[in-house]
Amino acid sequence: MADAMPASSADGPLTVVNGNWGATSLAAVRAVLESAYDVLTDVFGRTPAAPVRIGHWCQDPCTFHDERPYEIRLSARDRYWSQYIYQFSHELCHVMIHYDRYKRHKHNWFEESLCELASLFVLHRLAAVWAEDPPPDILDASGFAPNHRTYAGKIEAKYGSLPGSTLPEWFIRNIGVLEADPYKRDLNGVVAVSLLGRFRNEPSLWRDCGWLSHWDPHLDATFPDYLDSWSGCMRAKGLKDRAAAIVRELFRLGAAA
To answer: Which of 218, 249, 99 is nearest to 241 (CA)?
Structure first.
């Protein structure tokens, strides 16, 4: 359970709590996080099921399980706006794809990869948004906007390419590692970068991700089974399973059952 947070200066669906944010103002931090929140809620086509509270701490960013309002902690501080966006977008994506409905299953690595994808997606989107419509509480937001794309590019380059290997070959070699430890960020990053172009071209694919964990993933013995369950869940609602189909194509896992 999360430790008690100090009182905040604002209420509503997104609340930023007073804390050790460094050389900046609470209003500026809130404006940065709201801009990321607006991007993700827009592409998912909905808001979180409960309000979101964000506070600062000096550990790795985290979204606490079984908390309502949702409790998110970030380590970014001062005016490192791209870092705020990168951390918060990852954590908010967990909320949007129902991270706490079913815990500790072998396919959690895919959720982590999608959350890394969300961070990169939002950074690229806000590079354009801030240039055209800068948040008023952030000094020279339009001038800062290109830094979001630069920050994303450095992260994408860090994950690198797959010399001498295709993505399906990489998947076969690494699926066991991912299932054993979903927090292998370098491996999550390969998946995220591989999906980034498709999601940037078709942002509505995030709506498919909003149906994750609407079934029990513990019952899926393999990752193709997990994708089949995702497809089945969406088809039962009369929806087309576009994102699951893209992932199958990416790793050459065959058509849905």
So the answer is: 249
Q: Is 0.90 topped by the overall pTM?
A: yes
Task: Look at the alpha carbons of 35, 39, 40, 44 in this order and tell me if their dihedral is positive or negative.
Answer: positive
> What is the rounded CA–CA span in Å between residue 182 and residue 163?
23
Is the distance from CB of 78 to CB of 22 less than 8 angstroms? yes
Task: Give 63-68's long-range contacts (Cβ < 8 A, gap of 24+).
Answer: 63/91, 63/94, 63/95, 63/99, 64/1, 64/2, 65/99, 65/100, 65/103, 66/1, 66/100, 67/1, 67/2
Backbone angles phi, psi at 113, to 5 degrees: -65, -40
Q: Quick check: 195 and 246 in contact, CB under 8 A?
A: yes
| Cβ neighbours around 181 below 10 Å, total | 12
Q: What confidence tens digit (pLDDT) does each residue in 207-233 have?
A: 999 999 999 999 999 999 999 999 999
* Whole-number Å distance between alpha carbons of 177 and 154: 25
